[in-house]
Specification:
The protein has an eight-stranded antiparallel sheet with strand order 15-14-13-12-9-11-10-16. The protein has a five-stranded antiparallel sheet with strand order 3-4-6-7-8. A three-stranded antiparallel sheet has the order 1-2-5, with no helix packed on it. It is α+β, with helices and mostly antiparallel strands. Helix content is about 35%, strand content about 15%.
Amino acid sequence: MSSEGFNWHAFLGRWEEEWVPRTEAGQDDGDEQAHVRLGGPGADEVAIAAAERRLGRRLPPSYRAFLAASDGWHVDQTAGIYRLGGVSDIDWFQDPYDMTSLYEEMLGPDPSREETLLTGMWKRALRLETESDMSHALLDPGDTDRDGEWALYVYRGWDGELPDRYPSFRAYMEAMYRGFHSGRADRPGFVNATTRAQDANVEEARRLALRGRYEDALPRLEEALSFGRPRSAVLLHQIRHLLDPRGSFGYGGLAADPRYLSEVLPVEAMSPASGTWRLGDDHWLGMMAARGVARGTAEAVLRAMREGTHRYAPPGPWGGAVAEARQQALWGAGDAAWRLLRDAFPAWEAPGPLLIAPIGLLADPVLGPLVTPERGRELLGTPRAGQTGPAPEPVPDLDPPGLSWLTGLGADRRPFDGYRCVWADATDPTRLPSLIGEDGAELSAPVEPRTASWRAPKPHEREGVELWEDRAVVAVGRTGEGWAFAFDGHSRHRLDERFVSPAAAASLSGRAVVVWREPTPPSPPDRPAAFHLSVAEHGEELYAFTVRGTQIQRSGAIPKDLEPAHLFRPADTELDGELRVLEALHTELGLSLPRFALTRGRLRTFTTRSWTRAPRAGEGYVYVSIGGHPA
């Protein structure tokens, strides 16, 4: 950072004009001290040159220019450095505490440049402070930039942390000036030219954000936040939250304001509801109470978030689009839902001046997962709340067509290894539990499908369920072509001779298709994984086949384009055959599945009837207990 053109007299003079004393907790502010001298007259060139001869080094440009403007300074940090000395006070630090040896011990076999510089800093640094709280301000002549500036390190001996590094003395002083403002921002009457300029900066950033120019608003808000200006943090956090939708951001007392409560409080509850809040519900509820939120209100919102029953329901045209989009996403049509939201977003109205985006959308259990970082940027780039401007380019849809994506990577960056699905046309998804579900099966609230599968009780944990039963927890939805589906993407069960296809039961109103891709056996494999297809219509199975390696079991009149001998060729790998049959099912039968909803979204689930029949007379079976759990 070059010091050329920087007016130290104006900068330090403004600091002195704005200075008010710090006060400790419970201490009366007393009279404001105006025009206090934080520094002193500048040192002349002769004195600066004499100090340089004594030290044997020319001082870096910004520190040299500072000394010419003020020979020392009252920094007055809450904890750390209190006063910087003048030309007669500065001297080499000389590492009186042997910090060099300590940092050498921490160096790894391949230290970074930064680590090497910090280790050598202690013996070559110039000490600047004369009053401090066990702290040192150290200029390092070995850590320089192309302008000849020396990095400044602030080491606090009482906190055990690495020193804070500033690229130059000027950068350090500007940071201390911002800290001075931030530490006094909540004091009544602390108003000056700087606070007024920063508050105007915040207001301009708010207008820019509503026009879709969030990238221009960001640096303004970040600067205002460094000065501790009110409103800057809550506006900045909304932008950052949409850029990082799975992140955690606080909104201070905004949740207690009736204008914002329905948007903000559910967002605040996302962390404890998901289990990532490590301090417990009582701590979170107490924190909300301290911000002014009634405990009963906070408890109700947290419960709804945890149960997945919360609904983001804003007013007006935007609220109508949200409700319509939820119905789309609820059955897996995430891309269609997002297009509805995107088209309606310009009609969003802020309930008050401190909200610049519909962050409440993030807390909706069905719609929140749709907001990826790319879509968050799309929202932020859209003019809204009566503002105008160019609209951003639409984000591409996330769901690929067809079924081939099943051979790729899932949400955990691993391939789907073992999945099964039932499709039924001319059937509403809400009917699937009555067609293929266990007795009394009902659709759950929207949940993350993998979590529902993992948390489902095992047969030995359920009264009235036999150990041989294979009841699947399936996610339910509707494809873009109109098929209802029930999908289990986390099955570890094996397909054997007792398998009973649910295709016939699912086909009472039309056609139904069942696919089961068996999980790959552990290495070394004792047998190849199986792939099954069965198709039924109006309660009768039309055809079916099961392929395991080179063995094919078949029944019925299989269409030519679905002939297993053609799709699974001897020279192919299992993946080649699987991919070929998935492509054929999409082309010939119009089957697809929504990848986003099944890997990252929230869908309703239910538990099916067993996919295996009961053992017949004379058929034996055995269970092995591994770690106390039947297998």
